[in-house]
Amino acid sequence: MGIIRKTKSVETLIQLFNQGEEAYSGVYLVDRLRKKMNKTTVYRILERLEDEGMIHSFTDNDGLTWYAKCNGCSSSHHADLHPHFKCRNCGKTVCLNLDIAIPSIPNRKVDSAEFLLIGVCEKCLT
Ligand SMILES: [Zn+2]
Ligand SMILES: [Zn+2]
Known about the structure:
Layout: H1 8-17, E1 22-25, H2 26-32, H3 39-51, E2 55-59, E3 65-69, E4 84-87, E5 93-95, E6 116-119, H4 122-125
Parallel strand pairs: 4-6
Antiparallel strand pairs: 1-3, 1-5, 2-3, 4-5
The chain binds zinc ion (2 copies).
One zinc ion binds near residues 87, 90 and 124.
């Protein structure tokens, strides 16, 4: 795979994710970057960034795919077993810096797990 060729479009997306722990849905990114690139480009870059271990994705209760920056992941090792929190009021979704222990289940091999907590964020609570 190697290093991603840093086109302007790739840079734009990386910068967005570097802003913090906030996750963005694919739909939101396509809309936000509408003037800069088309939908196909957005999803192609997201796929590449995920391959490189720079971002990870998860699915929410509405079936939307969300993307967020990875911490300590690489293309060979995805250490993204952490919960996500989605605010049902404003829709803001973030990675939570918590470890989730996956139970070991006899005679089963767990490949992936998703943990989505839904509630009200600190901003909407006040
Ligand atoms: Zn909120
Ligand atoms: Zn996350």
